[in-house]
Design goal:
By secondary structure, this protein is an alpha/beta fold. About 40% of the residues lie in helices and about 20% in strands.
C-alpha cells in the first residue's frame, strides 16, 4: 500500500559536512553547531581522542574508533549511538573510512591481490556496496549527523598591502569523490580565522560572505529544521576592552609581523563571539591602513625591517 503524507520540514534530520585542512577548526566547529542545536551529543572520534581537548565547549560523550577503519565499524558505532538515545552524532572524521588504515582503499588493494590478480577495478565491485552502506547509515539515521572530513591542503602566495604572504588552502575532501552530494549542507573551512564558505546549502541560511562557525550557526539550523523562517540573528555586543586594545595595538604597530599577529587575534575574537562582524571589518580596515603606512616607511628607509 502506498502512503502519501504532507511534507513537513520538522520530520527531517540535518546532514552536514565540514571539510577542511588541518587546523581549520573542524572538530571545534562541529561541537559549536551541536551546542547551538541542543540535545545529547556524541563524537565518533577517529583522531586519537582529539575531541577531548574541547570538553569545555560543550557537554558530549565520545566513542573512540581505532583502526581498522572499515565501513562496518563505522556503521556499528552509528547504530550504537542511535540505540543509546543520542540526538546528535558527530563523525570526526569520515576520511579514515575511505583512506585510513583498514579503510576502503586498503581493502581494495587486499581484495584485488586475493581475488582478482591485482585488478583493483574488479575489487571496487565489492567495496562500493560496503561504502554505500556506510553512507546510507548516516543518511537514514534518526539522529542529526555532523561529519567532518580532512581536505587536501595546498598553499598559495597572496599579496597583502604589497607584502607577500603564504596561506594554507583547503581543497577537495579526502573521501570518495562525490560524497558531498549526499549531504544537505557542506561548509568548507579555511585555515585562517576558521571561516566557513558554503558550497552546498538546502536551507538558504548561509548565503553571502564567509563567516566563522558559532553556536548561533546551530541555533539557526535548529530553528529552520523546526519549520521557522531563516532570520538574521541579533549581533552580540562588542567586548569594548578587546576593541580598545586592538585599536591601540594597531596604531602602535611598527612591523608587518606585528600586524599579522594582531589581525590573527581579531579573527580569533570574532570566532569567540567577543566582537561583531562589523567591528572586525572596521579593525581590519585600520590594520590595512597601518600596513600601507609601514610599507611606505620601509621604502623610504632601507634599513627599516619587518
Amino acid at each position: 500500500m502506498v502512503m502519501i503524507r504532507k511534507a513537513r520540514r520538522s520530520a527531517t534530520k540535518m546532514r552536514l559536512l565540514l571539510p577542511g585542512p588541518s587546523g581549520s577548526g573542524k572538530t571545534f566547529g562541529a561541537l559549536k553547531i551541536a551546542k547551538g542545536i541542543g540535545g545529547r551529543t556524541v563524537v565518533i572520534d577517529t583522531e586519537q581522542g582529539s575531541s577531548d581537548m574541547y570538553d569545555d565547549l560543550h557537554e558530549f560523550d565520545v566513542v573512540d574508533l581505532s583502526p581498522p577503519f572499515t565501513p562496518e565499524r563505522y556503521i556499528e558505532c552509528i547504530t550504537a549511538c542511535e540505540q543509546a538515545g543520542y540526538d546528535i552524532i558527530i563523525v570526526d572524521s569520515i576520511t579514515h573510512e575511505w583512506n585510513g588504515k583498514g579503510g576502503c582503499l586498503e581493502l581494495v588493494d587486499e581484495i584485488a591481490r586475493a581475488k582478482f590478480k591485482g585488478n583493483t577495478w574488479s575489487a571496487y565491485s565489492e567495496i562500493t556496496p560496503r561504502h554505500r552502506a556506510f553512507i546510507d547509515a548516516m543518511l537514514r539515521s534518526k539522529c542529526h549527523i555532523i561529519a567532518t572530513a580532512r581536505a587536501k591542503t595546498e598553499t598559495a602566495q597572496v599579496d597583502e598591502g604589497g607584502r607577500k604572504r603564504v596561506v594554507k588552502l583547503g581543497m577537495a575532501a579526502e573521501t570518495r569523490q562525490g560524497v558531498e552530494f549526499e549531504f544537505d549542507i557542506v561548509l568548507d573551512l579555511v585555515h585562517d580565522g576558521h571561516f566557513a564558505t558554503v558550497s552546498k546549502d538546502r536551507t538558504g541560511l548561509f548565503a553571502g560572505d564567509p563567516k566563522p562557525i558559532t553556536e548561533d550557526t546551530g541555533r539557526r539550523l535548529a530553528e529552520w529544521l523546526a519549520g521557522g523562517h531563516a532570520v538574521e540573528p541579533p549581533q552580540p555586543s562588542d567586548d569594548l576592552e578587546v576593541v580598545e586594545k586592538a585599536t591601540a595595538a594597531i596604531a602602535d604597530a611598527t612591523t608587518l609581523a606585528r600586524l599579522d599577529t594582531i589581525t590573527a587575534g581579531i579573527a580569533e575574537r570574532l570566532t569567540q563571539g567577543r566582537i561583531t562582524q562589523p567591528t572586525a571589518e572596521r579593525l581590519g580596515r585600520l590594520a590595512s591602513e597601518r600596513r600601507t603606512t609601514i610599507a611606505i616607511q620601509m621604502e623610504k628607509t632601507p634599513a627599516f625591517t619587518a
